[in-house]
Write a structure and sequence with these properties.
Layout lengths: L8 E3 L18 E3 L1 E4 L2 E4 L5 H23 L4 H11 L16
Parallel strand pairs: 1-2
Antiparallel strand pairs: 3-4
Helix pairs in contact: 1-2
């Protein structure tokens, strides 16, 4: 398998309280503090704050869509189905939220 260096990123995970410097990245590979994989944002300090902020942004956009559908006369039963499909699927990360993000 050939690795595409231009698309390859390196993320170094560490405990949030660790006060050490990050290791020197591999030559030609960009070292990042967070990475998005399959819709989940992973942070190098193992916190889900960035992911939660992304999810809240998506929920806000989807809430607007629900208000639009309601304004167009979509019945409550169908609105509930749409809500469960596009909003409830995002709430699995609630246990990882900080107090401020709740």
């Amino acid at each position: 398998m050939t690795v595409n260096i231009n698309k390859t990123k390196e993320i170094v995970f560490h405990r949030p309280s660790a006060q050490h410097s990050l290791p020197i990245p591999l030559i030609g590979i960009e070292q990042v503090l967070f990475a998005k994989l399959l819709g989940v944002t992973f942070s190098s300090n193992l916190k889900f704050d960035d992911h939660a902020k992304n999810v809240l942004t998506i929920c806000s956009q989807r809430y607007y869509l629900l208000r639009y559908f309601k304004g167009q006369g979509l019945p409550a039963k169908e609105l509930n189905i749409v809500f469960c499909a596009i909003v409830m699927s995002l709430t699995a990360w609630g246990g990882f939220l900080t107090y401020e993000l709740r």
